[in-house]
Amino acid sequence: MDLNGDGNLDLLSGSYSRQDKDMAGLFQVLWGNHDGTFEKAAELKGSDGEPLLLPRGKEEDDIIDRICTRPFAVDLNGDDKLDIVAGNFRGTFAFFAGEGKGKFAPVATMLKSGGKPMAVQSHGDPFLIDWDKDGDFDLLSGSAQGGVFLFENIGNKGALKFAAMQTLLKAAGHANQEEVVFGDAHCKAPASDTRVWADDVNGDGKLDLLVGDTVTLMHAAKGVEESAARTKFVAWQKKQQAFFQAPQAQDEAGQKKWQEQYAALEKERETFASEQRTGHVWLFLQK
Length: 287
Prior knowledge:
By secondary structure, the chain is an alpha+beta fold. It has two helices and 19 strands.
């Protein structure tokens, strides 16, 4: 999107953490140039000149409120200025009002439904589009648990009002780590950590859903029968659990030794099985 109105497309991203004590993620922007190239990523700042930060509550564990998972730029309030709706680790959504030319109000408000913050099950993934074709923007989101969820805007651009969450695609949840599943035949629907995009993919005038996910695939090593790999993997998992439960030295030497031992454990698994962390993009055509 053209975030600052200079006629060039820009790239906007969240970031998981800046590793400071408050764990705040920062909005990163790559300003576009006339020739299609981009400037180096920089912190997106509010109109007060300070980096934009998501709001957090007063409790100690509310620190996760500030970890931004996905920002989405859209003119949500209808004033012809791009705003930012950002998801966070907890699963709620913050609204930064746009002030024009790439500037945003330094303080965000939380989007609410029924008087309470709108939320999915961790890792808010806001995608704003007029899903119900009534002239305003509705909010779609994935979540860490998977699924696709809709918060319909039943107000208007001048007076935002969101309905209760609807489930468009049920969350799959995280796979049981103790269950040994080889191959990819079990991948029949989106798994966890879903990310959403909506568009009319087949040109029939209806919005369709593109859903990305995260999945871990296991395969028997070359020359190893799957039944043997399965038996060895169960034994290896027990060894891994014992390793994690064992006392660990906290000094630098102890940390280095732990890393070396874990690397050796991972190498042992490679003799009978390989692990691939990947994901798929699923297409759901609207009827």
